[in-house]
Structures are given as C-alpha cells and as structure tokens.
Amino acid sequence: MDSKFHDQDLSKFSFLVTGGAGFIGSHIAEYLLKNGAGKVKVIDNFANGFQSNLDVLRAYENFEFIEGDIRNLDFCKKSCEGIDYVSHQAALGSVPRSIKDPSNSNDVNVGGFVNIVKAAVDHKVKQFVYASSSSVYGDEPTLPKIEDRIGNCLSPYAVSKRADELYADVFSKTYNIPVLGFRYFNIFGPRQDPDGPYAAVIPLFVKAIMNNTSAFINGDGEQTRDFTFVENAVQINVKGMLSTNDEAKNKVYNVAVGENYSVNFLYNYIKNYLKSNIEPIHREPREGDIRNSLADISRAKNLLGYEPTTKFETGLVKTIEYFKHLYSQKESV
C-alpha cells in the first residue's frame, strides 16, 4: 500500500485503532505506522482478529497492543488515554451471524460503540471515525445509494450499525466531539478471513477453486455489489481522522468505488484467472441480503477529498495473488 493519504506530520499524533488485529483495522494501523505516526495503539479481543496480523505491526517500535473487550467501559477508558485520534473498526460483522445471535451482535456493535465513544469523549480525543455499513440502506431500492436516503433494516446487523450512526449524531451534539461514520460497501483484500462460518465471498471462492471444489453462490448470482479494495477504506479513515473541514464532521459517508459487479461476474473472473473450469453450486438466497448495491461517493469526494485509488479488477488480482500464496504456503507445511 504505497499511496499517501495525508499531508500532516503524523509523528505529532497518537492513534487508537480498535479491532486492529482484524482485516481492515490492521491495514489502517499499518498505514499509520509506515508513515511515522507518533504512536499507534491497537486493541482487540481476537473474536475476529489474528496474531498474524499483529505480527506485521510489531516490526514498528511505535506500536502498542492491548488485548481486551470493548464491552468493558473501563478497558475502553484505559485504551483512550493519551490518544489524539480514534479509528473504531471493532465489531461483529456478518448478516447471518447477527440473525443467528442478535444479542451478541448488539452487545458488541452497539454497547461497545457507546463505550468507546464515551471513553474518547472523556479523554478529549480530537476526532473519532468509525465503521458503519451499507447494510443500513436496507430495502431502499434506489441506485446509487445516497447517504440521506435509507430504508428499513433487513437484519440485526444492519440495525446495530444504524444505531451506531444515531448514537454518533447524538454524541457529536451532546459532547461536542467530531464523529465521522463510514458505510463500507463490500470491502475486500489481503488478510480477509478465509476460514470460519462467516468467511467473506472472495477468499471463499479462491480457496474453493484452488482446491478444485465447487463454491456456493447464494441465489442466482446476479445480485450486484460495489466491491471495494481495502486500500480505499484505509484512505477514508486516514482522511476522516485528520480532516480539518468543519463541514465534513458529524456525517456518514459511503466508502466504495461507485461501480458494481454481479457475484457471477466475480466468480467467473476468479475462475478464469486461476485457469479453472469448475462451476459453482447455486443455493437458496441468503436471508437479510440486499439484492443490489451501488454507492454514490460524491459526498466523500467533495468533503474529504476521497478518491478510490484501486479499482475492482486491480484489487481483485492483488487479493487472488495474496490468497494463492497463502494457500500454497499452507499446503507446503
């Protein structure tokens, strides 16, 4: 990740990345460390994170890790001591997981969110950014998705992320802390968890094809997504934390590329790239899923200077190559 998303001297600032052992969080922390941040503190409880992601970060002397759970308010307060900027990525993702266990999703995604924002307020953090989700658009049919037009939520996960946005708005007004939310649209890339019951679709497809087995596609596969390479999520977090534009604060932003592709296109691209002829198996549509997704990213462009640096196909090739290497390493052990 060689792009530069800031023009300030980061050595003067300390950053907290929650969920920093996870997929997106570890990339944000790595960017900050690579670019000379004064301090980068990462917290995680390994519900979704991995030690291997932290190993990348431990190479930097200005890195600190604290293991703990954001459901614990005292832990959140300790974590925010001496911090200038917070990037809150810790959450229990996955629509199916939230349907199976809504209480746990709520406790982490809503209760944990309230704890970490209040801790940031108490320690006078300069700016707070957090991960929301395109799932908050729910049954709103209009494409592209515009931030001010949302529908009814279709899953407990979507409700939890919408609740975060409501809390963020209230916190910004009540406690005068600048808060910016990012509605992620299908973020993908290296370090995304390829295993477990809630693994993401791209690593699942690569893994299946490399193992010469058929991957599952939910429904007819013609559902579309605005697949967004992780570098773009890093960019918006960095620009959001450091933004001095008052008009940009206390808003939510779509984080995407502004182009959408079907799941069938995605599968066929990966299949062809890996020179396979194995076909997928279609199964019933997944409960709580949105049919089509496409983002309007003009607000992020206009207010934060966001510009997707990596488009879908470029990011997909980088991701396939990463997982090819990962799986070939596992096979050789």
List keywords for this structure.
333 residues; alpha/beta; Rossmann fold; 7-stranded parallel beta sheet; 13 strands; 16% strand
Describe, in plain words, how this protein is organized in 3D.
It is a single chain. This protein is α/β, with parallel strands linked by helices and 333 residues long. The protein has a domain of 229 residues: NAD(P)-binding Rossmann-like Domain (Rossmann fold, 3-Layer(aba) Sandwich), CATH 3.40.50. The chain is 41% helix and 16% strand. It has 11 helices and 13 strands. A 7-stranded parallel β-sheet has the order 3-2-1-4-5-6-11, with helices on both faces. Strands 7-10 form a two-stranded parallel sheet. Strand 5, helix 6 and strand 6 form a beta-alpha-beta unit. The longest helix has 21 residues. The radius of gyration is 19 Å and the shape is globular. The model has no long low-confidence stretch (mean pLDDT 94).
Q: Helix share of residues?
A: 40-55%
Second CATH tier, the architecture of the domain at 11-188 and 227-259 and 295-312: 3-Layer(aba) Sandwich
CATH superfamily of the domain at 11-188 and 227-259 and 295-312: NAD(P)-binding Rossmann-like Domain
Mean pLDDT: 94
DSSP helical segment count: 11
User: Mind describing the biggest β-sheet?
Assistant: 7 strands, parallel
Shape type:
globular
Distance between the termini: 28 Å
The assigned structural class equals alpha/beta
The ordered H/E elements are EHEHEHEHHEHEEHEEEHEEHEHH
> Over all CA atoms, what is the radius of gyration?
19 Å
CATH fold call of the domain at 11-188 and 227-259 and 295-312: Rossmann fold
Overall strand count = 13
Low-pLDDT regions: none
CATH class of the domain at 11-188 and 227-259 and 295-312: Alpha Beta
> Which percent band covers the strand fraction?
15-25%
Tell me the strand order in the biggest sheet.
3-2-1-4-5-6-11
